[in-house]
Prior knowledge:
Blueprint: H1 11-15, H2 20-27, H3 33-47, E1 66-70, E2 73-79, E3 86-93, H4 95-99, H5 104-116, H6 122-126, H7 135-139, E4 144-147, E5 150-153, H8 154-167, H9 178-188, H10 199-210, E6 237-238, E7 243-245, E8 258-260, H11 266-269, E9 279-282, H12 284-294, E10 301-303, E11 310-312, E12 315-321, E13 329-334, E14 340-343, H13 351-354, E15 364-369, H14 383-400, E16 404-410, H15 416-426, E17 430-431, H16 434-440, H17 446-451, E18 452-453, E19 461-465, H18 471-480, E20 487-493, E21 509-513, E22 517-522, H19 530-540, E23 544-547, E24 558-562, H20 569-580, E25 583-586, H21 593-600, H22 607-627, E26 631-634, H23 640-648, E27 664-670, H24 673-683, H25 694-700, E28 713-717, H26 723-734
Parallel strand pairs: 7-8, 8-9, 9-10, 14-15, 15-23, 16-19, 16-20, 17-18, 20-22, 24-26, 24-27, 25-26, 27-28
Antiparallel strand pairs: 1-2, 2-3, 4-5, 6-7, 11-12, 12-13, 13-14, 21-22
This protein binds adenosine-5'-triphosphate and D-gluconic acid.
Residues 563, 565-571, 588, 634, 636, 679, 683, 689, 718, 721-723, 726 line the site of adenosine-5'-triphosphate (ATP).
Amino acid sequence: MATGENSYLTEDEADHHTSSSSLKRFITISSDDEEKESNKQMVKRQRASSLPKASPLQLINKQPMIRNTRQTSLSIIRTDVNTGENKWNLNTITTQITTKQSKKKTTQTKLSTFFSSKSSSPLVRTTSLPTVVQKESITEKTDTVSLEGFDIDANEIFSQWSDELSNTSSSTPTKPTVDCKSIWKQIFNKPVKSKADDQELKQQWSKLDQEQPAGGNHHGFRGSTSDMKRNCPFYKKIPGTTFCVDAFNFGNIDGIQAYFLSHFHSDHYGGLNKKFSNMLYSNQITCNLCKSQLGVRPENMTILPMNTFTNVHGIDVALLDANHCPGSNMFLFRFPNGKLILHTGDFRAASHLMKHPLLQPNQIDTIYLDTTYCDSHYRFPSQDEVIQSAVELVSEQLEQNPRTLIAVGTYLVGKERVFHAIAKALDCKIFVEARKFRILNQLEDDDLSKRLTTKPDETNVHIVGMGSVTPPMLQTHADKHSLKYTKIIGIKPTGWTTPRATGGTKHYSIESKSSNTTVYGFPYSEHSSFDELKAFIEYLKPKRIIPTVNVGRANMPIVIIGGVTATGKTSTAKKLKELLHWDYIEADEYHPQANIDKMHAGIALTDEDRLPWLLTLHKQLEKYSALGQSCIITCSALNKSYRQILLCGTADPNVQAKMPCGDFYLFMLTLPRDVLHKRLVQRQSEHFMNPRLLDSQLQTLELPASKEDEPRTHVIDCDGLSPDEVIETIRKIIKQ
Ligand SMILES: Nc1ncnc2c1ncn2[C@@H]1O[C@H](COP(=O)(O)OP(=O)(O)OP(=O)(O)O)[C@@H](O)[C@H]1O
Ligand SMILES: O=C(O)[C@H](O)[C@@H](O)[C@H](O)[C@H](O)CO
């Protein structure tokens, strides 16, 4: 792709845990189903594996007692047979049930797990806590649930849930507070009882459970898909108002009069276009961009002033700077009774935000929080420190060689402070392509506007799309504009860059290099670091925190089991699935027929053979990650680049895993050759894998070079370990 206007990524595409592009890919997963299904059939035939026989439980899916209310939600409601009143319900929130709904075997397996497993807390592992559990139901242990003639003993369910139920001390229904609690736990390092005890919030939570899993992705499901019903997640609606925030992907939302937009990033405005016929509320800059870039009509937008309350439908609303991208704001809602709700949108907490007169400690009732980096692993320097570091680097380079092109990566809107600071320090102009020129001119920054030029040879500070900051693409950029530079410096400011130079003032690392081009990564984030988030919350002391990013991901790891043939990946995964009740994805079921045939014939797979297969598996990983749902994936993942493709969907080593920290664990099982050979020969008659391939597998095998290199990949030497011991080692690491 040549560097040009289209190469600008929107910020969410590149900087969030779950990118919108990845979601688009996620949404197309269903189109692979047929191919996947035929692969599965084939593998099944080859393996002659025996699947559980169908049971009458298959039929219950047709019963009115079970409501598949949404694609991903299954509610089982216990009704009092005498009064017809619903006493309680247990909800599962799992996509697997939905996507496999037509495949009876899977549905049956799920439900029998649900009802008959005696092991502890089977559902907690795979789904959410029950949402509406009334205290009195805990004592009614003799009740039964009728499902098409099956009497399911409530005792069994209660015994499975007893731990969770005993923790449900409130006499009224409570929401599944897993997420909020985990935030408190993260921030204060101790569990704090959620104060989500008012009726409004409870209703929001229970509504959520009738809808999709909140944990979906960054900000709810996006993109268009006919088979995916999109409901506005509860955390986008402000309880007690007719307001929603950043919710344009859900059509006309029932009961909503005012559609607030926090900033102009596509994961927030997604769904907004010239046909929008409701009323959007935002600040001047964001409204400018909505009009010019999306064609939203002025009559459908209300521009609100910053830093002062304006009454909207009976509620006072103040817009406060969010310190994210230009035009980003937080919303402070003040109710007639004085109650305050703060919605941060995406924000970077900083001391100047805390000094705002409208933000006082102990006054915020609920904060809707940008939890992008709410994990203590995410520590990075302040924006000022990083900018200073970038300015110093550029100045040094230009001093050494004045014929150096400085190419700074940006999003459509975002990271402006970096190139602006560089241009100010060098007192020069900034070259931008035409579209970016128009956008930057709408940001109401006079100095920035004055510096912009669309003439490439007027300055050596050039702005390029973030995706174009690679040596070959920067070279293409220079060639395209016939620039006569002897050296190119790429500046890539992103929160995902881990600074290798720890300590000191040099907050950058070399990301990639060619003969005359060096790309430097800068940990410049427009989201709060963990410490900033913590300081912000500690200062405001809100009564309640509602996370808006990566919701539902807490403790939902994805476990990948790799290694050469016969190391025990499948055996381990199957056992782990039984113990944890997680979904299990067997990579062999995703190999195309051609790959299976080759392996059966003893012909080793090539990189080209493995690439589409690894990408398909990556989609699965993405899907589970987006849903915040655990799963186990087996995949040989023999070398680093295969693992890179599996985890990141690309072989580009510069792309860091955009999986949230803590979300996945990769285990490489190893065994001596003679043990492997023996196993392969023993199972030869029942498996397609040709033992002759063992040596090529061992040759291709590349274990992580170091902990730093692949921090989430663990090598387990399985020599002499029983299957249970392998499982135990894994469970210790994943703490499940
Ligand atoms: N810990 C173990 N101890 C002894 N035998 C084991 C152990 N784990 C697995 N096996 C046996 O080794 C063989 C290979 O195991 P398995 O099929 O799980 O490996 P795999 O890594 O999934 O292989 P492949 O990649 O070829 O599908 C099987 O016959 C299995 O029963
Ligand atoms: O990357 C590969 O070469 C393959 O994934 C193999 O590892 C086989 O599929 C597996 O070993 C057979 O089960």
